[in-house]
Amino acid sequence: MMADPLLHENATVQCLHSGQAKPSVTNQRVKVGGQKIVTQPAPYTISGCSLPTQSGGPCVTATWTSAATRVKAGGMAVLLKNSQANCVPTGTGLNILSTQMRVKGT
Q1: Which residues pair with residue 20 across a beta bridge?
Q2: For residue 87, what is the domain's CATH number?
Q3: Is residue 106 part of a domain?
Q4: How would you write 33-78 as a 3-class SS string?
Q5: Strand partners, 104
Q6: Which pLDDT tens digits describe the chain residue by residue (106 residues)?
Q7: Please, are residues 43 and 62 in contact by the beta-carbon 8 Å criterion?
Q8: Number of domains forming the structure of the chain
Q9: Which residues contact 91 (CB under 8 A, 6 or more apart)?
Q10: Which residues constitute the domain of residue 67?
Q11: If we measure between CA atoms, which residue out of 103, 96, 81 comes closest to residue 12?
Q12: How many Cβ atoms from other residues are within 10 Å of residue 53's Cβ?
């Protein structure tokens, strides 16, 4: 099983329509590279989604559907670079463009 980098609060994450996605909650106790990590239950808020209303947009929030299976923080699964999410109301996913690369999990 390949390990993937953990997501942190300042990772570059976008909806498929280039809207910026940010975590609504971070883990206050665990940090990587001085930045707080993010766990699965925390929804992301999306701003700047370019999908027009008549096409079902814009993306407003995203909920993570997959996370680490072996690494937890505060009893919650941590998010990894390969984690998957669902945007509301569009049903599309998120692109994780960059994150820290030192700390990895599965």
Answers
A1: 14, 47
A2: 2.60.200
A3: no
A4: CCEEECECCCCEEEECCCCCHHHCCCCCEEEECCCCCCCEECCEEE
A5: 5
A6: 689 999 999 999 999 999 999 999 999 999 999 999 999 998 999 999 999 999 999 999 999 999 999 999 999 999 999 999 999 999 999 999 999 999 999 9
A7: yes
A8: 1
A9: none
A10: 4-99
A11: 96
A12: 8
Tokens matching residue 6: 């953990």
Residue 52 counted as domain residue: yes
pTM of the full structure:
0.93
User: What is the 8-class DSSP label of residue 80?
Assistant: B
Q: Is 104 domain-assigned?
A: no
Determine the Cα–Cα distance for residues 52 and 50; give it in Å rounded to an integer.
6
Residues 6+ apart with CB under 8 A from 61: 43, 44, 45, 46, 87, 88
In the DSSP assignment, the letter for residue 13 is E
Question: d(Cα 59, Cα 93) in Å, to the nearest integer?
Answer: 10
Residue 77 falls inside a structural domain: yes
Residue of 80, 42, 49 whose CA lies nearest to 63: 42
